[in-house]
Amino acid sequence: MATDALRAQVASKWQESFARLNHNEPGIVGLLNFTQAWNIARECIRPRGLDEPDSFTQYDKSTFQASFELLNKSRRLPILLESLLEDMRKRFPVIKEEVDRYTLEYERTSDTSFILNLVFRLLKWYKKWLPMQELGATLHSAFVLSFQTHLFSVLTPTFVRGFKDLCASTLPSTDPRTNVPAPNVEMWQAFEILGLLDRYENIIASVGYEHIEAHVVAACSGRWSNPMLGQLRKWMTDKVVPWMLLMYARNATTADDARAMLQNVGSRFDFHMAKTLCDLRTKEIFDIIIDYPDSSGALQDLKECLHRVDQRASLVHTLRKANQKRLLHPGADTRLILTQYVATIKCLRVVDPPGVLLFKVADPIRRYLRERPDTIRCIVSNLVGDDDSGDSLVDESEPIQPLQQYELDDYLDSNWEPEPVDAGPDFRANKPSDVISTLVSIYDSRDLFVKELQLLLAQRLLAIIDDDTEKVEKERRNVEILKIRFGEAALQICEVMLKDMTDSKRIDGHVQSQKASIVHPIILSKQFWPMLEATEIVMPGQFRTLQDEYAKEFSAFKPDKKLRWLPHLGTVHLVLHLEDRIVEVDVPPLEAAFIELFSQQDVWTMDELIAKVGSSVDGTAALKALLTWVDLGVLKEQAENTFRLLEVAESAADGAREWRTVTKSVIELPSAPSLQQQQAEQMRVYWKFIEGMLTNLGSLSLDRIQAMLKLAPGYDQTIEQLGIFMEAARLEELVVVRDGMWKLTPK
Predict the structure, then answer these.
(1) Residue 666 has what pLDDT?
(2) Choosing a second label site near 337 at 20 to 30 A (CA), which of 436, 711, 720, 746?
(3) Is 138:147 a contact under the CB 8 Å cutoff?
(4) SUPFAM superfamilies from the entry (predicted)?
(5) DSSP structure class, residue 238
(6) Is the CA virtual torsion 407, 408, 409, 415 positive or negative?
(7) Cα–Cα distance between 391 and 326 in angstroms, integer?
């Protein structure tokens, strides 16, 4: 039963299929017609060689259509399509041979014309094998997909490299002197037909990116005076957009259509141009800062690019790395570091007004400057115009204003804005904006600057000779300006020093009116002037007499005060009458004391001279003073550390027996201990307090010592300064420390 049913079912299907193929014709006429239609269709769509005639030379169009209609009715088009694809697979090695031949020639010569010829050759094969449109969209789309699949499988990496070079050759050269290549529309149409545009879209885009990169580097490297972004966008509009039209908007019929098609890709190209320029300026940022303000144009470009490209972290990393390598090392002068720091402040405020970038970049510079011992001196010297480098840290056009302090955020302010998203936890948006406030904020306390100002003013005032009132007035003007910045209370001591200069002139006038003297001292108020390096020189002979006479007249005028001479400071104008010449010279007091002793005898040893003027004079200073007279031809070193007075010049070269020789020696600024030395001396005053604490209380932590010292009158040192002093005491074996606890060294 089952077998009979299956046989009947198969017979039914066979009759149905035969009837469909035979088209209900008598006998097998329909089957013969189907066979003829199949053969005509196969011949029509068979892949041919380029030199073979086309199918329409054998059959007319109506015959083709009739054959395909018959096959369609017979439901045999899928079988015909499979046959076409199989025939194309078998014929494709012919195309592969041509691909290999052309790419081999390109690899040998690097001539992109071989790649272009190959593309046109592939287009001929494509058109030769392409079925007629009348055969239907299904057959056409299946052929295109299969042809492109086989084609992409035979294209070698050499072809891809040549294809990229071919696309690059269609772009205008970065050299403006070269001619712009004419657009090859046929080439881009061939790319589109063969599917190369979609297949290698990223490669074509990379060609445009690399061209933009090359132009940006060539046009903008080292050119910082003017903004370049506008010029780059104009160049892109004139040179790159026409090239983009061929690739991305070749089917546009109107300008609006082209603009719409290029909107997305144009934005990507503009982004890449901004990124390339941002990368270039980031790489050059250290030199751009050095060249400021002549590099303002580059900073404007960088600011605009950073709004478009998120590369702020890269800029911070690059600049910090460049600072560490080129700036923050022992070979760099402190003035140079400060100058670069100020330029960095100004430049990064242009690029990022909120100051986040500056906060991140400046932190290593500030920490390094804080460790340098001469940072405060350099800043203060620049403030009072005592910097010999000629580079001012402060812009003259910048208004003078009080030092700014950090303020808490006012959330009731209608103009309040939150901090930027990339700001760190320690960032404060309302930091000091002027340069001087920023420099002073390197240190936790402005008292260090005030003390340095006092020290520098003392040196400058003591260096004034010949009663130069103009220089005194200049210092007074500086102090008035500094009052605006630091406040009047902080500079009261400076006012006292200036008043001492005025009072000294008035007192000297009174003393001179009572008894004329060649001594014109500056009378200092001991409590208000910084500690000056004391060298107890005993001025011999006439100098001592002159000092005593002047002190007597001063005491008569000021009975409640007493003069204590500082003979190591000041200048002495001498006229030496020798047998064959007269030497007129300005020298420091030590040189004058030594030459005065030579009026008593002609030969002295250096040790004898030191014993006469005071044992506190060290050998180096004494030798330097004696060599001054040797250089002037007044003394001669006849043995080691033994000097003889030359009443008569030894040779014509020493004076040619001229009766008058006038020489001005170099007068050095009076020395004063540095701020660190003064702090060390002040800490030594409190050593007795520390010693008493450790004796009575045993071991103490640094915090406990600091808390107890604050009870002592006049103590104003920080815990860091106390730590430095205690470490110095440990090195002198006065104290020992274990687990942070300090105690006296056991005896």
Answers:
(1) 41
(2) 720
(3) no
(4) Cullin homology domain, Winged helix' DNA-binding domain
(5) I
(6) negative
(7) 19
Provide the phi-psi class of 37: left if phi over 0, else alpha when psi is between -120 and 50, else beta.
alpha
Cα 14–Cα 15–Cα 18 angle in degrees, nearest 5: 85
Three-class DSSP category at 582: strand
pLDDT at 23: 53
Rounded to 10°, the helix 112-129/157-169 angle is 110
DSSP 237: I
Burial letters 692-708, b for 16+ CB under 10 A, else e: ebbeeeeebebeebbeb
In the three-class reduction of DSSP (H, G, I as helix; E, B as strand; rest coil), residue 450 is classed as: helix
Residues 42-95 pLDDT 10s: 666 677 777 777 655 556 666 666 666 666 666 666 777 777 778 788 888 888
Average pLDDT, the chain: 78
- Indicate the SS3 state at residue 576: strand
**CA-to-CA distance for 419 and 412, rounded, in angstroms?**
15
**pLDDT > 70 fraction of the chain, expressed in percent and rounded:** 75
Choose between 336 and 429: higher pLDDT. Answer: 336
Q: Worst-scoring range by mean pLDDT, 252-256, 420-424, 511-515, 643-647?
A: 420-424
Instruction: Say how far apart CA 743 and CA 735 lie, in whole Å.
Output: 6
What is the rounded distance in angstroms from the CA atom of residue 7 to the CA atom of residue 353?
Answer: 92
Residues 6+ apart with CB under 8 A from 430: 406, 407, 409
Would you say the C-alpha torsion 681, 684, 686, 690 has a positive or negative sign? positive
Burial class (CB in 10 A: 0-12, 13-18, 19+), 718: middle
Q: Among residues 183, 163, 191, 168, which one has the least CA distance to residue 107?
A: 163
- Dihedral, 134, 138, 143, 148 alpha carbons, nearest 10: 130
Residue 320 has pLDDT above 90, yes or no: yes
Query: CA-CA distances (angstroms) from residue 519 to 465, 500, 658?
Result: 12, 17, 30
pLDDT at 104 over 90: yes
Q: Which residues contact 132 (CB under 8 A, 6 or more apart)?
A: 44, 64
Q: What is the pairing mode between strands 661-662 and 582-587?
A: parallel
Q: Give the bridge partners for 605, in sequence order.
A: 642
| CA-based nearest residue to 293, from 245, 240, 226, 354 | 226
Asked whether the predicted pLDDT for residue 25 surpasses 60, the reply is: no
CA–CA distance, 544 with 550 (Å, rounded to integer): 10
Q: What are the pLDDT digits (tens) for 381-398?
A: 777 766 555 566 766 666
pLDDT for residue 662: 41
Other C-beta atoms closer than 10 Å to the C-beta of 455 total: 22
Question: How far is 655 from 661, CA to CA, in rounded Å?
Answer: 8
Is 604 within 8 Å of 641 (Cβ atoms)?
no
Does the structure show a pLDDT above 90 at 321? Answer: yes
Contact of 706 with 726, CB cutoff 8 Å: no
Residue 599 is given by DSSP the state T
